[in-house]
Specification:
261 residues; 14-stranded mixed beta sheet; six-stranded parallel beta sheet; 3 helices
Length: 261
């Protein structure tokens, strides 16, 4: 079955065959998708679909849930499927759980924003060139979480993008982007690159913690930005390196904080 218009239903059941298939286009899915006749039934294909109701259920996962390349799906609910394939862009609008074996494939984008995507119940492979974007607000950010029964392995290259920040983080601030909560992480620092820093005043350095988590540490660029601007305007004798550094060394809540932000 193919759905391209409004869906007026509160539940869509897949038949007992594992290959029963439903294709969803650019619609908002508010109907619960359930596997009828036991777990592992049904294939759901999404192409720019807004997920506003759970796909599958705890103990009754679908056979497959596939997110098409070149399409953006808004995720506002959980996905339970034996196999989950992400080839497009997922934009989280709330915290969500993906339960099942998952592949995050070449060109896929996980746009977490300020929300957490928790992966549970299966092996997870990040293949090819994929991207995670997150919003950092103080010590809070959107996380990718290795939850119970998951094993996340980075096979390809991962780009990390920090969205524009409302306030400049202090120098040395640490946040955890990919974290463990009952699962296993197999990440390789050489395959991870921070490609967007959320603004000129911040630079995020990535590192792998002892437990395998991916940590981002801010290396403030305030002094560099101010000094370069002063030099470009011929004011290097007025705004010296020491003055520029003083702005970078502001304490939260002080006048320096107000000026930088």
């Amino acid at each position: 079955a193919t759905f391209t218009g409004a869906i007026d239903a509160n539940r869509i059941k897949f038949a007992t065959a594992a290959t029963s298939t439903a294709n969803f286009g650019a619609v908002n899915l508010a109907a619960l998708l359930v596997s009828d006749g036991g777990a592992g039934k049904g294939i759901a294909n999404f192409a720019g679909t807004g997920i506003n109701a759970d796909v599958g259920a705890v103990g009754a996962r679908l056979a497959q849930a596939n997110f098409a390349a070149g399409q953006v799906s808004a995720i506002n609910a959980n996905v339970y499927a034996d196999a989950i394939a992400v080839d497009g862009k997922l934009t989280l609008t709330k915290d969500a759980t993906f339960d099942g074996a998952a592949t995050i494939n070449n060109g896929a984008i996980l746009a977490l924003g300020a929300h957490d995507l928790t992966l549970t119940g299966g092996a997870v492979a990040l293949n090819g060139n994929s991207t995670i974007s997150t919003t950092i607000n103080g010590v809070d950010l959107g996380n990718l979480v290795a939850g119970a029964g998951s094993n996340i392995t980075l096979n390809g290259n991962l780009s990390v993008e920090v969205d524009a920040m409302a306030a400049v983080p202090v120098n040395g601030q640490k946040v955890t982007l990919i974290q463990k909560n009952g699962g296993i992480l197999n990440l390789a620092l050489a395959k991870i690159t921070v490609t967007k820093n959320g603004g000129a005043f911040a630079k995020w350095r990535d590192e792998i913690a002892a437990d395998g988590s991916l940590i981002l540490t801010n290396e403030a660029q305030i002094a560099e930005v101010i000094r370069d601007a002063a030099v470009s305007q011929g004011l290097e004798d007025v705004i010296t390196e020491e003055v520029a550094q003083a702005f970078e060394d502001f304490e939260p809540g002080t006048q320096g904080n107000d000026i930088v932000n």
